[in-house]
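Dear colleagues,

As part of the handover before I leave the project, I'm documenting each prediction I ran so the next person doesn't have to rerun anything. This entry is a single chain, and its sequence is reproduced below.
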Amino acid sequence: MAGAVAITGAGRGIGRATALRMAADGWTVAVSDLDGDSAAAVAAEIRSGGGTALSAQLDVTDHAAVRAWVYEVDDELGGLTGAVANAGIMRVQNFLDLTPEIWRQVMSVNLDGTFHFVHPVAERMAARKQGSIVIIASASSRLPSFATNVYNTSKTALHGLTRVMAMELGPLNVRVNAVSPGVVDTPMWELIDRERAKLLGKQPGEVLAEAVARIPLGRVETPEDVAGFVAYLLSDASDYMTGQNISYDGGFVMP
């Protein structure tokens, strides 16, 4: 059954595809992104197709701002029944070149930012005893990869957050699951390919090609692939699933 969903980092990539998919499925969508113009463009695209969408410029590292936004859209949309924590950033460097500043920058968005979002969402959902929260993790939550050290660590931590939330919120009829995509056709993987190639002395495109060669299904994942599975986790069709970190990656990682 369609409801209302809030999505962070929804101006492009997986977040954008998820917003469009949920709108196509009849959901009302609240779109946020650090780039407010991109969030507004996604909301406008939804409205042009006959859907209902709100948009906001949002920095997920700002705890007070995120909490205020969640309360606002929850009230305006008549109660969130779904939420997707998607905002994230990537930095690529050798571990020995990792600095406290880079560490904190990535963790503040990927881990702290997710907490800032899902906590007020969980408060509202728990009060109504209904809801599904999806956290976008990564194949790197299970598979370490070269030069994406702090990103990998942040996504592994999200797996832990998913489990403890699911355990505590389950009795309140709030489900929490993580999705771990693999090699997705997004600007983030363009960055990985370019920067990792520099460190390894390879040509642009080589790192991506090597990663795709590991995928049994033989192709790059699309944002729409991920969005389809997120839609399933937000729907009643998955109402007995919680606390899971699901690899949705074409077989890139087989736990």
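Residues 100-128 form the longest helix (29 residues). The chain has eight helices and seven strands.

All the best with the project,
I.
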